[in-house]
Amino acid sequence: MEKKAPGLGFAVVIFLLVIILWVGNWFLVHWLPNRGTFGDMFGAVNSLFTGLAFAAVIYAILLQRHEVDLLKTELKRSKSLLEKQQDLATSQLQAQEKQIFEATFFQFLEIFVRIVESMDLKSTDKPDVVGKDVFPVFLERIRKSNQLKYRDMYDSHGDKDTSESAYEEFYSKQKSELGHYFRTLYNLFKFVDKSDIVDKRLYTNLIRAQLSDDEAMLLFMNGLSRRGEKFKKYLEEYAVLKNVDETDILYKYAERKKEYSPSAFE
Length: 266
Hints:
Elements: H1 8-31, H2 35-39, H3 42-118, E1 120-121, E2 129-130, H4 134-143, H5 146-149, H6 163-194, H7 200-209, H8 213-223, H9 229-237, H10 249-252
Antiparallel strand pairs: 1-2
Helix pairs in contact: 1-3, 3-6, 4-6, 4-8, 6-7, 8-9
């Protein structure tokens, strides 16, 4: 609440009092017969004027104090207004950065979806397989590889009788299709992870929602390979492998599956 300045009436009263005293003194000096004796009264008048001067000083101090209080109040208001402006500017900047991030993110996500849609497997004796339908075919080819096809027929197994070795052989034949797929998906997760956005999990969940269970299994296999080492940390941090079927032989015969953090499947 703003403080009021000392009343102007106080100064007016002092001024009128001084005028009245001077006028009264003039009448007394000119109408009293014994002016010499009255001269002794000037000492008292001088004391009175000294008191009035002191009162005027006090009034000036009160005015100065009031001005200082007004200045402090104005500074507080200016500081509060500046803080609100800064908060508003920060909020606007964050909103703008979020809009830019989301625009880039959804464009990136659309590119990934188009890559999946453009994937195809051609066959001379079977209908062409396109889009997400290629992934069940990919996994079936890995399961039917020599490394896994006859594994249960023998009591002992070598280093090549694993899901990892079967995947390596499969990838060497399909790297032209899968290389582009994995690189795009990796960079999409990396883009979200390196951003300053607050709720990163919201956006990685949107990416994960685009992935079928067969894609999750393929990502599981790729994360165990040398090529998937950098991608593996994102699979773990954002639980990308949550829908991996642990009863699948690809999971069962994966020798290094324990290298994944449990967070990848949560």
